[in-house]
UniProtKB/TrEMBL annotation:
This is Uncharacterized protein. It comes from Aureobasidium subglaciale (strain EXF-2481). The lineage of its organism: Eukaryota, Fungi, Dikarya, Ascomycota, Pezizomycotina.
């Protein structure tokens, strides 16, 4: 945040330069978050996907089997790993959904100047975890991960 603030305050920063720095930092946040959880893609692939999603160049609804994805599935298959397809799809989904969640909250909170509400946070989180089961996230439950986040401890 300090780097972004300093860059924005500099007299040399154009709107395009500021956007580039912010998109880069958001992408690094996605990569770092996924790396902590030992999921996601490599930095180059994360950067490529995030930048396209954050700029609105590709729709956030995506097909799991792009050409690159299929190549990875084939590589896993050659190694005899049956879970390869699941791992590739999950890794790509982790990146895409992080970027889509960022895009959503930025669109609503920054561009539309709407309030940061509990509902906005829930919507954003639902985008982040859509299609990911609790078991995939390390939670011992058959309920979806997003649902688990909003269960009252007293329920």
């Amino acid at each position: 945040m300090n780097e972004i603030s300093a860059f924005i305050d500099s007299s040399k920063a154009s709107l395009e330069d500021i956007e580039a720095v912010i998109l880069k930092e958001l992408t690094l946040a996605v990569f770092g978050s996924n790396k902590l959880d030992k999921v996601g893609l490599g930095l180059d692939e994360t950067f490529h996907l995030c930048m396209r999603i954050l700029r609105g160049e590709i729709d956030v609804e995506y097909e799991d089997r792009t050409e690159d994805c299929q190549k990875k599935i084939d590589a896993f298959a050659l190694k005899g790993l049956k879970s390869g397809e699941v791992k590739v799809a999950r890794s790509r989904r982790e990146v895409v959904q992080h970027a889509a969640a960022f895009r959503h909250i930025i669109t609503v909170f920054v561009k539309r100047n709407q309030s940061m509400t509990e509902e906005l946070i829930k919507e954003t989180d639902a985008i982040l975890v859509r299609g990911l089961s609790g078991e995939d996230a390390g939670v011992l439950s058959s309920k979806s991960y997003a649902t688990l986040l909003y269960i009252s401890p007293c329920a």
